[in-house]
Amino acid sequence: MSEVTVAEFSSKEFSAPHDILIKPVVSEKSYALLDENKYTFIVDPRANKTQIKQAVQAVFAVKVVGVNTINRQGKRKRTRTGYGRRASTKRAIVTLAEGDSIDIFGGPVS
Q1: Inside any domain, residue 62
Q2: Which Gene Ontology terms of cellular component type are present (predicted)?
């Protein structure tokens, strides 16, 4: 498979790969997954695994080996006047090929 660049990215729902990748997840678990060459992102809930793979390859110029997705339901929270709900999110755990890396945290890993 050839590498996908930002200029070559095409999708019906999304005009650019940056529309799919919302932000990286910064947590202890996501930081620990870096040792296994896995990176965690919050993505658009409408995106599928193929679109997420193409977006990561286009934005970061790396080779993606696998994508796992998690749909997280928003928590019900109490407010002064009643109940509200946090927004539901979709996370993607992206596994990169051996030798590829993304500098998300801005420093050396481990």
Answers
A1: yes
A2: ribonucleoprotein complex; ribosome
Based on DSSP, count helices (H) and strands (E) in the chain, helices before strands. Answer: 2, 6
Measure the CA–CA gap between 56 and 54, rounded to whole angstroms: 6
What would the DSSP string read from start to end of 8-26? T---SS-SSGGGTEEEE--
Question: Domain range for residue 85?
Answer: 17-96
Give the list of residues 6+ apart from residue 53 with CB closer than 8 angstroms, or none. 64, 67, 94
Q: Domain for residue 3, yes or no?
A: no
Q: Is residue 101 part of a domain?
A: no
Number of domains in the chain: 1
pLDDT single digits (tens) 49-82: 999 999 999 999 999 999 999 999 999 999 999 9
Written as six digits, the tokens of 44 are 């658009």
